[in-house]
Amino acid sequence: DRSVIAKCLFLCQILKFDSALPLVINTWNFENAANAAWSALQKGGSVLDAVERGCSQCELEQCDGSVGFGGSPDERGETTLDAMLMNGDTMEVGAVADLRRVKNAVGVARAVMEHTEHTFIVGESATIFAENMGFMSEDLSTNKSIAIFSQWLQQNCQPNYRKNVFPDPSKSCGPYKPKAKLWKPKNPKGNFDPSSHDTIGMIAIGKNGQVAAATSTNGATHKIPGRVGDSPVAGAGAYADSTAGGAAATGDGDIMMRFLPSFLAVDLMRNGAQPTVACKMAISRIKKYYPNFFGAIICANTTGGYGAACNKRPGFSQFPFMVVNPQTNQSQLQKVDCF
C-alpha cells in the first residue's frame, strides 16, 4: 500500500531528523573541547553552557598554543586574550578583547553578557571588570611564550605586522614612525604561518534547535599591542541565530573580519542554503579580494546539518573539525578539502 510506504518514509525522516540533534561542532582537531561541550549537553546544560565549557577546555589546555594563556606573545611579549559568546535565542552577545592577566576569557565574555547591558569590553578595563566579577588575576606568560618573544627579538622582530613605516620593518625593530609616502595596497604576506592564527570556534545546537556559538583565542603571534582580530566580533568570528543556525570562522582575522563571514553564512542558511554551500560562499566572498588568504569556516543549521569550507593555499589543503551528535555519540574528527 503506497500510503503505508509514504507514512513509513515520513517516520524515517522524522527519526533521522531527531537523531541529528543535539549537535556540537568546532574548528580544528580539538577533541577534548568537543567532548567537554557534549558532556555539558548530556548533563542537561544549555547550548550556551556547552560552548562556554568547550572553549574553556581549550583555554585550559592551551590548544595548539593559539588559545589561552602562554601563547602568541605580542610585540611587548605579552599574551592577551579575545573571546565571545552568542545566544541564538535572544541574540545577546558577550565579548572581551585584549584581556590581560585573566585566563578564562570565554567566562569573562559570558559575564559581560549576563551582568552588563553591554556587548563588548576591551583592554585593561576588561581585566578590571573580570576581577570585579571574581575572576583571578595571574600572569599569562609561560617559559614557552617568553622564549618565542626572545627569539623574535633576536631575529630583528621578524615577522611583524608593520607597513609603510621607518625604520624598515622587514629588517629592524621599532619604534616606528609613518613614512611620508602614499599608501599602496598590500597582499597578505607570503610567509604567513597558519599556526599563528588558530582559534577555537564552536557551535552547539540543542535538541529543539536552540543555537549558541563561542570563540576563544590569544590572537596573532607578534601582533601590535591592542590588536583585536575577528574572533570576538559578532558576525565575524562567530554568529548564532536559532531561526537559522550558527557559524564560526578561523584564520587570518585581520582579513576575515572585513567580510563578516559567519553572519553571511548564517544568513545564507536562513535563505535555504545547505551548510556546506553557505560555508563555501562565505569563503568565496573573501577569496575574490584576497585569493591567498588563510581561513576556514564551519556551519550548522537547526536541523542538525553541518559543513565546512576553507581556502586552499600552500601548506593548507585540508581543514579538520570536530563533530558530535547522537549518531556518533563521541567526538569525531572530520576533514574538508580546501578549494
UniProtKB/TrEMBL annotation:
The active site is at residue 199. CDD domains: Glycosylasparaginase. Its EC number is 3.5.1.26. GO terms for cellular component: lysosome. One of its GO terms (biological process) is proteolysis. It catalyses: N(4)-(beta-N-acetyl-D-glucosaminyl)-L-asparagine + H2O = N-acetyl-beta-D-glucosaminylamine + L-aspartate + H(+). One of its GO terms (molecular function) is peptidase activity. Pfam families: Asparaginase_2. InterPro entries: Ntn_hydrolases_N (IPR029055), Peptidase_T2 (IPR000246). Keywords: Autocatalytic cleavage, Hydrolase, Protease, Signal. Residues 1-20 form the signal peptide. Substrate binds at residues 227-230, 250-253. Belongs to the Ntn-hydrolase family. Cleaves the GlcNAc-Asn bond which joins oligosaccharides to the peptide of asparagine-linked glycoproteins. This is N(4)-(Beta-N-acetylglucosaminyl)-L-asparaginase. It comes from Sinocyclocheilus grahami (Dianchi golden-line fish). The lineage of its organism: Eukaryota, Metazoa, Chordata, Craniata, Vertebrata.
